[in-house]
Amino acid sequence: MTFFASAKIRMAAIIAGSMLAGSLMTGTAFAYEGHMFNALHALQAARQQLVVARPDGGYRDHAIGLVDDAIATVNQGIHAGY
Question: Is the pLDDT of residue 49 over 70?
C-alpha cells in the first residue's frame, strides 16, 4: 500500500500543497501598496501647495512640518512592506 493510496490522504496533500503555494504567492501580491504610494503623492502635492501659500503667522510653517512628518512616516511604511 502506497502513502497516497487513501483518498483522504491524497486530498490532504493537495490542500496542503495548495495552501503553501497560495501563501507564497500572496506575500508577493501584497508587496505593492498602491494606496501608500497614492497617499505619498497626495502629501507631496499638499506640501507644494503649502510652500507657495502666503505666510500666515507660523501656521503654514507648522503645517509644512506636519506634512513632512507624515511623508516620512508613509515612506517608512512603504519601506517596511518590502
Answer: yes
